[in-house]
Amino acid sequence: MKRWQRALQDNYGTPTIELVSGKGSIVKDANGNSYLDFLAGIATNVLGHAHPAIVKAVSKQVTTLGHVSNFYAHPNVLDLAERLQKMTGDKSARVFFCNSGAEANEAALKLSRKTGKNKIVATKESFHGRTMGALSLTGQPSKRDPFKPLLKGITHVTFGDAKAMKRAISKKTAMVIIEPIMGEAGVIVPPSDYLKKVREYCDAAGVLLVFDCVQTGMGRTGDWFGYEYSGVKPDVITLAKGLGGGLPLGAMIAMGPASELFVAGDHGSTFGGNPIATAAALAVITSIEKEKLLTHVDQMGEFLLTELALIPGVSEVRGAGLLIGLTFEQPIAKAVTKRCQELGLLINAPGDSVIRIAPALNITIKQAEKCVKIFTQAVGENFNV
Ligand SMILES: *Cc1c(COP(=O)(O)O)cnc(C)c1O
C-alpha cells in the first residue's frame, strides 16, 4: 500500500490487496490467499484468467507480429471486423477499433458530429467513460462536476422515462446514447418497452441511436449485445470491456447510413485494432461459441438471481445474465464487499446500498454456490435485523 501511494496517483484510492496470479475464476494475492473472482476485472475477463485459447492466441501473435498501425492491414483485424459484423446481423455494419470504452464512445460522439448536427441526449446516472467527451455524455454529477466546463449541447434525461426522452429529442439532435442496462449506476434495467420507444423517437427525428454496450456486450447478458432483449437495433454499438477478454480493446460499430459518415482522415488510433488485442478477441468469440457460454450465462444468472434474492436484508436483485445488481435495505454495501474479500470473494459496490456481481461467463455451478454462501455470511454479519 505504501509503494502504491508513493508511486501512483490517488485517483483510485489505495487497493488493499495485490493480485499476482489467476486461473479461471480463482485469483491469488501476494500473501498466498485465494479468492473467487466474481468481478472479473470489472466485467472484462469473460473467459476468466489464463484461458488456454487466449493464452495460445496471444502467445502465437506476440511472436509473429506485435503491432503494425492502421497504415497496414493484418489478418486478425480483418477477421475480427467480419466476426463482429456477422454478430450484428447487418452486412452494412462497419467497425472502428480503439482501446477502451471511453474511446469507443468518443468515436461515436465524433461520428455524430458528421451528421451536421450537434445536440445530444444521454441519461442521468449513466456511465460512458472518463475522457472529456465521454465524461460529457456521462450523467453522474460527482464524476462530472470537478471537470467543468464539459461539452455543450448535451441533455441528460431520466433513464427509463420514455416521455422525458421524447421531449428532449428534436430535429437538431445528432444522437441519443443509452446503456441498454446501466452498469456503473448499479445495474439498472429499464422498462421492457423503453428502448423500442426511444428507437421510434430517433427514427421520427432522424437521430442516431447509440447503444453503449461496453459493459453489457460480449455475452455478459446472455446475448452478444446487451440490447438484444429489446428487439430493436441501434445505428451504433460501442464495445470494450469483455471484447478483448482482458486485453485492452474497444470498438465502435456503425450500421446503415451511419457506417458511411467517417471518411479517410476523420478519426484514428495508433493502437486500435492491434494484432495481439484482436487475437485475444477472436479467441473470446470462438470460445464463447464453442463452449456454448451464452446459454450457460442464462443458467448461471438465473441461479444467482434466485438464490441471492432469498438472503435476508437483500431488498432487490436485478440484471440480466451474469450482470447482477443487488440492493440492501441498509447502506451496508461497502462493508459487505470488504467482508466478502476477507472471506475470499471479490465483488464490488458501485453505491452505498448496491452490489455488482459480474463474474467470468464460464463460472461453474459450484463457484456460483460458493459465492452465494460467502455472500450470505457477509450480509448476515453486517445487516441489523
Ligand atoms: C466501463 C464503461 C465505459 C468506459 O470504459 P473504459 O474502458 O473504462 O474507458 C463506458 N461505458 C460503459 C457502459 C462502461 O461500463
**Helix-strand category:** alpha/beta
Overall tally of domains: 2
Give the full name of the CATH homologous superfamily of the largest domain: Type I PLP-dependent aspartate aminotransferase-like (Major domain)
Secondary-structure element pattern, one letter each = HEEEHHHEHEHHEHEHEEEHHEEHEEH
Number of strands: 14
What ions, cofactors and ligands are bound?
pyridoxal-5'-phosphate
Protein described:
With 385 residues, the chain is α/β, with parallel strands linked by helices. It contains 13 helices and 14 strands. The protein has helices at 2-7, 40-43, 52-62, 75-88, 101-113, 132-137, 141-144, 162-168, 194-205, 275-290, 293-309, 333-343, 365-382, and strands at 19-23, 26-29, 34-37, 94-98, 119-123, 154-157, 173-178, 208-212, 236-239, 250-254, 314-320, 323-328, 345-346, 354-357. Helix 9 links the parallel strand 7 (173-178) and strand 8 (208-212). Helix 4 (75-88) crosses helix 10, helix 11 (293-309) packs parallel to helix 13 and helix 12 packs across helix 13. The longest helix has 18 residues, at 365-382. The mean pLDDT is 97. Pyridoxal-5'-phosphate binds at residues 100-102, 105, 127-129, 179, 183-184, 212, 214-215, 240-241.
